Amino acid sequence: MKKAILLAVAALFCLTAFSQTRKELYDNLSQSFQDKDSVQTSKIIADWERLYPKDAELYSVYSNLYLTQAMKEVVIVSKEKPEDEEYYVGKDSLGNDIYIYSIIDIDEGMVDKAVSKLEEGISEFPDRLDFRFGLAHILYEMERHQEMVNILYKTLERSKENGNKWTWTLDEKLDDGKSALMETLQGYFQDLYNQPDGMLLAESYVNKVLQYYPQSIEFLNDKAIFAYDRGDMDEALNQFLKIHEMAPDDAVVINNIAYMYQQKKDKANALKFYRLLEKTGDEYYVPLAKKAIAELEK
To answer: Of the four listed, 82, 161, 246, 259, which is most buried by Cβ atoms within 10 Å?
Structure first.
């Protein structure tokens, strides 16, 4: 069994009327999905196809429809208490406790249809970033991690071709396409890094991003973390110090340097960087810096 997929493309989309805008269709279809009203969903999609037959949004519409159809709720009655699901306790005919709960069963064939529809959408509208991230999200949830990173690699290639001139739901232009790209790519790194079998793939992923964006502070920081994970503290520290030269006010990097020095029993440099961290004013890191300084000064 696989967990239910929550598609990040857009949680999609009215009443039949010739004056309907795409935004109205989107909002009403989104509500019909939330209400699990399949009759209304079908009606809205039919209206959409009639009013806007060449609309890019239809790829997202159908992908979400297929995902909805792929998820089937199955009721389980068992003598074994479930570990993760919420459950009700009942009694069998002999008076023994039974546990009643539901799980989501995934029809992988329908998921493949959702994947194919977004692939078609990307082919027709290559600058729709939500299509690309939505597809990556589906593949991640299905634990198809290599396919997921392949989609992200293609997105990196496209970012150099289009200069990060991306669009989103309803063809809205993103004001800062590069930031939207890099922030989401970093999020996918965290997802991979936290997978039991994802470390090697995560490191390859970081190196790939750096081929396209070699000055990315976040991904350079990630690369240094891999050196630390391998036990090469000197290499990790050298990398963090180089990043600090590039971004002297980055609290994450300063914290990592201070921690490295603390691990190496270099009290003077640890205090130096924790005091520098304290001066950043970062609401998360300042309390950590104060605590570390107090411990080091004992």
So the answer is: 259
